[in-house]
Design a protein that fits this description.
This protein is an alpha/beta fold and 302 residues long. It has one domain: Aldolase class I (TIM Barrel, Alpha-Beta Barrel), CATH 3.20.20. It is built from 12 helices and 8 strands. It has helices at residues 26-38, 58-72, 87-100, 117-130, 141-144, 150-156, 172-182, 198-204, 218-229, 233-251, 256-269, 286-299, and strands at 9-13, 43-46, 77-81, 104-107, 134-139, 162-167, 189-192, 208-209. It has an 8-stranded parallel beta barrel with strand order 1-2-3-4-5-6-7-8, surrounded by 6 helices. The longest helix is centred in the C-terminal third of the chain and has 19 residues, at 233-251. It is globular and about 50 Å long.
């Protein structure tokens, strides 16, 4: 595992608790934050894919960031998602996030238009020029249908405001190439967003992971990270296998959106929040939640 940078460790892409009326559930937000920090994570990413940011209004996102920064109170780093199809909206979200006190913002590419590599370079260059704080590139082809070329990432890595990348592309060849070209730099952090590749990513030189299942098992992911930090690859792979089993609980046989409803239901079973998700996603039924409860019991997730 490469030398640590400021943006390293386990960064949880936090679920966003809502009421059944579709409002931000502020007391549950605080409860989830305390649970994650108690599990030993190093950062919390609000307004990401797992947090249903695509379904939230800008005002709700800002309320979430304000609440998270206040309640976390410097206990761990705070990251805020700013990706949008409108560049001006991304810039405005970044400025507001930094005003509220986040440590860094995270930006996926605009997804409405098919963008060339040079257009992607221009997009991130504009953001880097217009915002006043640390920004991480967010590569997530599953939702944007755009894979940011490694050449473009390497060029952007020299920008003083662009300090790292969350790479959620489940591609071992890309992982190998990214780490070969960019690992070991103290000014550019590589974070793995495809949870299943995290142990391999750490062994190849990435310095952090952003795993959705850390919402349920933050302590497990903390242990995986420290095993990798100690160069105990066999232990890291063993814990990776345990984490994969937990991920199967909410991912197997489901689309991405359905998996978000399922992990929210699992968090509800743990007593952390309501199972409600925002439209167009559908909240699981009581019968579906009971099945999740039974599967969690079999996996020892209580």
């Amino acid at each position: 595992m490469a030398a640590q940078t400021q943006h390293s460790g386990i960064v949880v892409p936090m679920i966003t608790p809502f009421t059944h009326q579709g409002e931000l559930d502020e007391s549950s937000v605080c409860r989830v934050i305390d649970f994650l920090i108690g599990g030993g994570v190093h950062g919390i990413f609000v307004g990401g894919t797992t947090g249903e940011a695509a379904s939230m209004s800008p005002s709700m996102r800002h309320r979430l960031v304000r609440l998270a920064v206040s309640h976390i109170d410097h206990r761990v780093r705070v990251y805020s998602g700013i990706g949008d199809n409108c560049v001006a909206q991304s810039i405005a979200a970044a400025r507001e996030s930094f005003r509220l006190g986040v440590d860094a913002v995270v930006a996926h590419p605009p997804s409405y238009y098919a963008l060339s590599p040079e257009e992607l370079f221009d997009y991130y260059s504009i953001l880097g020029r217009e915002i006043q704080g640390d920004m991480l590139i967010y590569n997530i082809p599953m939702t944007t249908h755009i894979s940011i070329p490694v050449d473009i990432v390497e060029r952007l890595s020299d920008h003083p405001r662009i300090v790292g990348m969350k790479d959620s592309e489940n591609n071992i060849e890309r992982l190998t190439e990214v780490t070969r070209r960019l690992k070991g730099r103290d000014n550019f952090a590589l974070l793995m967003g495809a949870s299943v590749l995290s142990a391999k990513a750490f062994m190849l030189g990435m310095v952090g992971a952003v795993p959705g299942s850390a919402n349920l098992i933050p302590d497990c992911w903390r242990d995986l990270y420290h095993s990798a930090l100690n160069r105990d690859g066999s232990r890291a792979e063993q814990i990776q296998s345990q984490a994969n089993q937990a991920a199967v609980l909410f991912q197997q046989g489901r689309t991405l959106g359905q998996s978000l409803a399922a992990i929210k239901a699992a968090m509800h079973v743990k007593g952390l929040c309501e199972p409600a998700v925002l439209p167009p996603l559908r909240t699981l039924t009581g019968q579906q939640i009971e099945k999740i409860r039974q599967e969690m019991g079999l996996l020892g997730l209580f």
